[in-house]
């Protein structure tokens, strides 16, 4: 159904704006509650009975608040994103770029690894039985526990910077890709497989002409999950190294110096980056499936 | 193999006149499925010969093994006893020679390929050149009345049109045998009638040997030169009826006395198979 600009405002913008307004409001209230103790203590030293309005105003203007107010985060965000040169160390865009490149490299490696594993598992019973338990076991180990080890081991062989972070991303994101692809490669119904057998098709032909095309919708669903956790992996990978660049480094240095405003703006940047990545995959998905007449709207 | 006298050797290869006519030879065939609870005897003592150019229909109650028998002939299932030869060779060798055009109850088109590309699929697998397979696909889509729909995707076609596309796909690589397992079972009566007429026309034009499975007595009467009536548990052949309908047929032929008589005989045969089932 077509809708005019007014309809769009009511149907799409209004609900989103309402939710944002409620969150911002609650956030201000929460900032007052959490920062109250510090502010009232400080003001009490200056005067005997500080007015409530002064304390409330104070909770929204602290340099190192427990919870910064939204406008403080917005100011920091705009300063480090729009008012700083992109190449400067203080630019949040620069740090986001560092994390994004590790994320994308790890994502690419993980996707390839996941797809290759899935193809092996679907074709060889031995792999299905021997590999699957290990794949699942690999994901039960907390990444926070093995991330430092990966960094240290790779650092010993001379790999630092981008690659170790990408390896951690890969470690996290090959899993959903492998699981989704196994399901996707097994999704053709028996009739479609019998058809291939009646043509005397080889396993490679069945893979290329049936299993892989059939798995594409499953692949995209997994890729969306994978790219999001790949970002998590890259950020986690930046924590133990004491890395000087990347969103993880911003989070770490922010927590060292109690710079909560910096932490929160880095968090928002990470969320924004994650959204861009997931929506990009969604866009590629629509283009791909649309070209095959399988776009959501066309079904 | 030791040296045989020329006549037997020729018969062995299936080149003798009487043998050459036989496309499918099923002897003492049986199949028991091993299932977790109890073995299922899907087929028992099946003997059947099918000659070139015949249109043979399997009819019988659900679960009597029609699909299973067809799958054995197509080397998609292995019998536990007895033998099958197709053109004098095993079903496996016949499959390697791509002797089968299999048509399922559902069209089984690949949703990511347009109709043209779906029909080209077997040719791609058989390594036919791009130009030739495009030409073949166009020709056979034309034959089944789908000219102008080449670029459409399966979801844009009705069930009947999809099934036509799957028939075009099966015919297009000129297989020796057309195996059709309830191809029109999912279609409404009116579409089914139209498809039956089309199939008769195509069969006359291509002179293929067809094995056809159906639950519809009407369909069996209209299409077949021979009707194989089966019964369930275990799946056996109850009766084989030669159709005495003229070769030239159309939908009205079903109303002729000869056709009515044939339908009656099929009904009796099915009943006999059924009562046998109840006595047991
Ligand atoms: N893979 C299998 N494993 C176990 N039993 C099977 C298998 N395939 C078929 N059967 C059994 O064999 C019997 C014959 O099945 P089949 O599908 O050939 O029947 P059908 O005549 O085609 O039935 P319908 O008319 O419903 O299609 C049935 O009892 C069925 O349950
Ligand atoms: Mg069946």
UniProtKB/TrEMBL annotation, chain A:
Keyword Transmembrane helix: yes
UniProt-listed SUPFAM superfamilies: MetI-like (SSF161098)
InterPro entries named among the record's database cross-references: MetI-like, MetI-like_sf
Keywords: Cell membrane, Membrane, Transmembrane, Transmembrane helix, Transport
Subcellular location: Cell membrane
GO BP terms, alphabetized: transmembrane transport
Transmembrane segments: 12-37, 92-122, 134-155, 167-185, 216-236, 256-279
Membrane topology type: Multi-pass membrane protein
Family per record: Belongs to the binding-protein-dependent transport system permease family.
Protein name: NitT/TauT family transport system permease protein
From TrEMBL, chain B:
Superkingdom assignment: Bacteria
Molecular-function annotations in GO: ATP binding; ATP hydrolysis activity
Pfam family, one: ABC_tran
Residue ranges annotated for the ABC transporter domain, each copy included: 26-257
Keyword list, A-Z: ATP-binding, Nucleotide-binding, Transport
Family annotation (SMART domains): AAA (SM00382)
Family, as annotated: Belongs to the ABC transporter superfamily.
Stated name of the protein: NitT/TauT family transport system ATP-binding protein
Organism in which the protein naturally occurs: Dongia mobilis
Phylogenetic placement of the source organism: Bacteria, Pseudomonadati, Pseudomonadota, Alphaproteobacteria, Rhodospirillales
